[in-house]
């Protein structure tokens, strides 16, 4: 199954590159997403190894397939956005999670709720997953539980890969390359403080909606706040092992966030991680 998943990822990437051309914005994004998929796959394997003991080889193949293909819908999204930029296509909002879900649902080899439902909800609010009719209608509790376990795996691996990547990517943040349709970051935005909404959301231990992140330090805070939506101990282990808190504080200081604020942020994260380790013990 995994081999077929790797082939599919490559095929969809190649097809996307054929359609959007060799240069420019969308080609760059397609390349980024292929790299991202491989990074998330690596993280997924790491988390799996420590968290999923006593599982069958079949389950492992299914779980890691969902991880590897979680962003497969991105290629279709880029193709459509490219078409639009050339004056064609439809003026609708594309949800790459939904596009990936629909694509794999039509492929008998991958049409398994443990693969497609985690992909459909990897970037949504968890409430959306729990109220999904297809999920709710699964009668077998063990299967339902596996869908949830894999969803958590995909979400953790995705967030940790991005947290690791973005903390060293100030140049990417400076140009906002990762955001489609957004102008380069102005000097004003780089020097702006953390906005109030972002700071209060962070202190309330919630993830921060991209809509509220209007400055560079807001974006750094948004990446850091993904930590409030993590499910497995091993993901926190990864965060600690790579000293990501220290790096995020340095990241914020680079954007001229004061000592007092950075101290409060550091303390908040340390206390939060201690609390989560306690909750996830055993
Ligand atoms: Fe995604």
Features:
mainly alpha, globular, 282 residues, 2 domains, 69% helix
Can you offer a commentary on this structure?
The protein has 282 residues and is mainly α. It folds into 2 domains: 160 residues, no CATH class; 98 residues, no CATH class. Helix content is 69%, strand content 0%. The chain contains 16 helices and no strands. Helix 2 runs antiparallel to helix 4, helix 3 packs parallel to helix 6 and helix 4 crosses helix 5. The protein is globular, with a radius of gyration of 19 Å. About 2% of the residues have low confidence. It binds fe (ii) ion. Fe (ii) ion binds next to loops.
Q: Ions, cofactors, ligands: which are bound?
A: fe (ii) ion
In what range is the share of β-strand residues? under 5%
Shape: globular
Overall average residue pLDDT: 90
Distance between the termini: 32 Å
Oligomer: single chain
The stretches of 5 or more residues where confidence is low (pLDDT under 50) are 177-181
Helix/strand-derived category reads: mainly alpha
Report the sheet with the most strands, covering strand number, pairing sense and barrel closure: none
Helix content: 55-70%
Which radius of gyration do the C-alpha atoms yield?
Answer: 19 Å
- Tell me the total number of β-strands: 0
- Structurally, the number of domains stands at 2
Question: Which sequence of SSEs, written as H and E, runs from N to C?
Answer: HHHHHHHHHHHHHHHH
Number of helices: 16
């Amino acid at each position: 199954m995994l081999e077929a998943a790797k082939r599919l990822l490559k095929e969809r990437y190649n097809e996307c590159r054929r359609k959007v051309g060799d240069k420019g914005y969308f080609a760059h994004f397609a390349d980024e997403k292929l790299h991202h998929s491989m990074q998330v796959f690596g993280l997924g394997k790491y988390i799996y190894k420590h968290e999923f003991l006593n599982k069958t080889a079949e389950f492992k193949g299914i779980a890691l397939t969902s991880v590897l293909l979680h962003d497969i819908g991105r290629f279709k999204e880029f193709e459509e956005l490219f078409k639009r930029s050339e004056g064609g296509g439809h003026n609708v909002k594309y949800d790459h999670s939904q596009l990936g879900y629909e694509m794999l649902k039509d492929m008998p080899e991958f049409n398994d709720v443990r693969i497609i439902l985690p992909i459909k909800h990897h970037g949504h609010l968890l409430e959306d997953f729990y109220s999904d009719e297809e999920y709710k209608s699964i009668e077998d509790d063990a299967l339902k539980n596996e869908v949830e376990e894999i969803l958590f795996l995909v979400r953790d691996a995705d967030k940790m890969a991005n947290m690791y990547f973005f903390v060293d990517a100030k140049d990417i943040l400076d140009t906002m390359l990762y955001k489609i349709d957004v102008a380069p970051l102005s000097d004003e935005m780089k020097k702006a403080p953390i906005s109030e909404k972002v700071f209060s959301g962070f202190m309330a231990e919630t993830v921060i909606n991209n809509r509220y992140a209007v400055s560079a330090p807001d974006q750094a805070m948004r990446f850091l706040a993904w930590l409030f939506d993590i499910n497995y101990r091993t993901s926190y282990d990864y965060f600690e092992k790579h000293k990501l808190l220290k790096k995020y504080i340095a990241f914020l200081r680079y954007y001229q966030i004061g000592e007092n604020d950075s101290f409060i942020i550091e303390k908040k994260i340390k206390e939060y991680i201690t609390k989560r380790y306690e909750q996830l013990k055993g």
